[in-house]
Amino acid sequence: FRILNISIILLMGCTLFPLKGQTGTMIPDLVSLDSARAVSLLKRAEKQVEKDSLDQASILASESLQLSMRSNLKETEVSALILIADIYSRLDQSGDAIPYYLRVAEIFETNRDFVSLTGIYEKEGDYGI
Questions:
Q1: pLDDT of residue 124
Q2: Whose CA is closest to 70, among 20, 24, 15?
Q3: Whole-model pTM?
């Protein structure tokens, strides 16, 4: 019974006085770590594409995409999305590339970047998507 009371008091204390990062927002140090890792993974993925190691590149680009989305790094997110879509297209799996290109188009449209939006639609057309 005594342990239960202590646990309840500790739980109440944590909800009344949030600890660093407890509010649901990411701790800035973790965000910057994720940001740096997302960029690093993307660069490694691009190098794997150059080596024609598309499976490994896809894995790295997907990890980069997840981290960049979590860190709200739109430029890295767009680059990872395009790289993943390009990998699918190179593997003759253009249908699997569509959701990635559509997400890129959505980001460009939201940012009112119509020049880049036109470019992504041209790229989709190049691949017959």
A1: 59
A2: 24
A3: 0.69
